Amino acid sequence: MPVRAGFFMPLLLLFAKVALGVLVLLALLDFLLLYNNRQGMFASRSMQEKLSNGSDNDVYLYLENKYNFPVKTEVIDELPFQFQKRDSLFKTAVAKGRTQVIHYTLRPTKRGSYLFGAINVYAMSPLQLVKRRFRFAQDQEVPVYPSFVQMRQYELMAISNRLQEFGVKKVRRIGHSSEFEQIRPYVAGDDQRTINWKASARKADLMVNSYQDEKSQQVYCLIDKGRVMQMPFEGLSLLDYAINASLVISNIALKKQDKAGIITFSNKISNLLPAQRKSDQIRRIMELLYNQRTKYQETDYERLYATVRSKIKQRSLLLLFTNFETLNGAQRQLPYLRALAKHHLLVVIFFENTELHALLEKPANNTAEVYTKAIAQKFDFDKRQIVKQLQQHGIHAILTPPKQLTVNTINKYLELKSRGLI
User: Fold this and answer.
1) Using N-to-C axis directions, what is the helix angle for 148-159 and 238-255, rounded to 10°?
2) Ranges 14-23, 49-58, 254-263: which has the least confidence
3) Contact, 45 vs 142, CB < 8 A?
4) Ordered strands of the 89-94 beta sheet
5) Cα(371)–Cα(365) distance, rounded to whole angstroms?
6) What's the predicted TM-score (pTM) here?
7) 194-203 average pLDDT score
8) Cβ-based burial of 31 (10 A; exposed 0-12, middle 13-18, buried ≥19)
9) I need a labelling partner for 408 at 20 to 30 A (CA). Which of 29, 203, 276, 346 fits?
10) Partners of 261 in beta bridges
């Protein structure tokens, strides 16, 4: 505008030229300020050696200002393609000679190897006329493991007796477990049925038998990797929910002095880790679960039964993680499930379709929605019928939403322990 007016007012044209010259000089000064120092900025990334699947993982970016003036920065961290994020831009100011920390979290939804790229830092002086890019090749390959964060949370809650905050129930012990611990003096509140009269006569004082939970019981997590476990829920597949729950329940079983093992299967047996109570057993379980992938074949329960019969000689608790969408699908596998339950304590764990629940709660406004809702009710009814049929044949069953899988599995394990069934 001043240039156009300069044809009529030469003084304004002179003013525009002076302003342009000043802007060029300031930009040049800004350029010199930023590029005069070859190592004006430094950035690095810090995170754990491995990430936890389905959990929030902390990532820290450290920005060090080596200029003799404060800078404003824009930071772009090149995230692994699995996150599908293109907006990881952080803006922050860094004082002279100081270090600024940027913290953010990432929630992976698939196990495997994740490759982080470079850290791009765009620095600006107080003039903010020029940006200088610093690129720090922080190429970093990080594995994503089953949710060890969830496992540690449950472990810490168990130590502090706060498992109820997660929904784990306090289970009243029914009767006594069969493993004798010691004879001790009677104290007020002890069950009078535990009085040892012979020992009381010898000591001339009331003595009682003390019992403890049976130990060294075998607990196997049987994980179905067939196509029925591919269904996603909040970013995670049903297989990943089963894997995370298996890691937690295996850790709790080991803490209870039981033995934990894993079997993964689909159309064939993929892995079999014998139930043991070694010090490194939870590490071996985690390494085995890290590499599991969903198969798209039909699950072969006959082969599973043959493997269990030949490899597991001692009566064990079998936690079978699978999914049945129809009553016919469950009835086809019922003979093999009944055969397993004859020799072991079998718990079949499968998933509620929570999207069906949302559909059932919505009112039907037209004929098409009425038909859709009727079909949804049929699927929901089938799930309940599957539970009843399993229970009729002496098979324990858990029908659970994916989010409540871990809590419901722990509750069932503790219930079976308290009843002395394992």
Assistant:
1) 40
2) 14-23
3) no
4) 89-94, 71-77, 119-124, 132-136
5) 11
6) 0.79
7) 83
8) middle
9) 276
10) 220
